[in-house]
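Supplementary notes for students who missed Thursday's class. We covered one full example, reproduced here. Read the sequence, then the structure, then the short commentary at the end.
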Amino acid sequence: MADKEKKEKKGFWKEFKEFITRGNVLDMAVGIIVGGAFTAIVTALCDNILKPIINWIIAAIVGTDSLSEAYTFLKRVEVDGVVDLSQSIYIDWGTFINAIINFLLIALVLFLIIKALMKVQQMRDQAKAALEEAEEKRKAEKEAAEKAAQQQAVAAAAAPAAEANKETTAAEEKKEAAKTEEPQPDPETK
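Structure (token representation):
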């Protein structure tokens, strides 16, 4: 029973090693790491650059100098006549628009990356198919050359035999002709 469990464990670790070392898993791991780093860049861009611009545009549309009108308050808490955002309940439209832009930027970049990878995969498949086709063509040409060489060898071997056969046939025909031409008795000798 213990031997069977050891074999199963070895088989499990062997399969796990094969799974980990396959190219697709490594590519996926690199993609996840790069995607995480890129997401951090896009989030920083959206939070620190785009969100203030979006809030400024919303404030300009609403027509106020403060961001307090850029929010939709569900519960407004004011401290000393100033809105306390930490205690208020509100909808931050700038953050919502920022999240949409963040999503669209990440989706666009992922689309471009996937499109490039698919193009590379397509080129790889085409190259592989071309190599296989060239290999098949080379094999077919080699087989045709071998077949032609065999036919030439057979023809070369058959030529002396055919020549000898012709000579034998010609000699046999002469003998037959000589037999059939028996001398006729001369009528004057009678």
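Commentary. The longest helix spans residues 93-180. The domain at 2-172 is CATH 1.10.1200.120 (Non-ribosomal Peptide Synthetase Peptidyl Carrier Protein; Chain A). If anything here is unclear, bring it to office hours.
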